[in-house]
Amino acid sequence: MLTKPKAAPGTEASPHPVAVRLTEVTRVFGDPRSPKRVHALGPVSLELRAGEFFSVVGPSGCGKSTLLDILAGLNPPSAGTAEFDGQPIRGVPDHVGVVFQEDASFAWLTVEANIAFGLKRQGLPADEIRRRVDYALAFMGLKDFRHAYPVQLSGGMRQRVCIARTLVLQPRLILLDEPFGALDQQTRLIMGDELLRMWRETHATVLLITHSLDEAAMLSDRVGVMSARPGKFIGTFETGWPKDRDSRIVTHPHFGELTARLWEKLRVETMKHMQGEARGEA
Ligand SMILES: Nc1ncnc2c1ncn2[C@@H]1O[C@H](COP(=O)(O)OP(=O)(O)OP(=O)(O)O)[C@@H](O)[C@H]1O
């Protein structure tokens, strides 16, 4: 059997033992009285422990990005409450960093300027910006590319720039929406290791959306499986991995058992989604 982690990682670094609390959150797009409205999400209730690494998997279109947008303050819930560090989320909360799948680096800025962008907007002193940027460049293995432009980098390196740009803001909650979706399998594994290293270092709470069960099983403390739309959590799984894990955990004897349990839960929902698509409902 998988064993539970000894303690919620990073709990000591946060003033609140529960970083994120969603209570009966739903999201409906369009006029609620219109037959064309889309009930995208919920009701969903979820608590993320401070310092927890939580991944979300679910069928396509089940409302995963909608959930992330609510936590990022980009999209309010239609009903229910969403809180971060005990406060209702209204607008983009301080200390929240978001990384999306698409390459969101600024093509006209160097790597260094990309990473410094948010810090300058925050109006931090120049020496503090330089200190944080230097650290992020070294941490993400980008030191030799500080003066390069994104077009001169590989897809994996560009995504590292985007992660570094989030990292320097020192967020307490990091939201990632399929951040490695466009990368090849080997690069995904290496990027996963870097993400774990960053998570350990910062004590941040992480919510990762991924289509990859392997990625969810490898990286997370807990994995939440969502139903077909409107997405609800139909199961959460503790992985039981130690905090100092890395991609070699995929060879652990329990890894296959864990991904099989995730797939068992997800398989039925994926079929429901595909049947809905065939009826033209998706
Ligand atoms: N702004 C919007 N207006 C209307 N419908 C929307 C809007 N945003 C999302 N939707 C719908 O809500 C549902 C959930 O979308 P969402 O992008 O959250 O799903 P997802 O699980 O992230 O999908 P995927 O896995 O394919 O990325 C979909 O049916 C989508 O078409």
TrEMBL record:
Keyword Nucleotidyltransferase: no
Limits of the ABC transporter domain: 20-253
Keywords: ATP-binding, Nucleotide-binding, Transport
Keyword field contains Transferase: no
Molecular function GO labels: ATP binding
Domain of life: Bacteria
InterPro entries recorded: AAA+_ATPase (IPR003593), ABC_transporter-like_ATP-bd (IPR003439), ABC_transporter-like_CS (IPR017871), ABC_transporter_ATP-bind (IPR050166), P-loop_NTPase (IPR027417)
Family per record: Belongs to the ABC transporter superfamily.
UniProt-listed PANTHER family: ALIPHATIC SULFONATES IMPORT ATP-BINDING PROTEIN SSUB, TAURINE IMPORT ATP-BINDING PROTEIN-RELATED
Name under which the protein is recorded: NitT/TauT family transport system ATP-binding protein
Record organism: Xanthobacter agilis
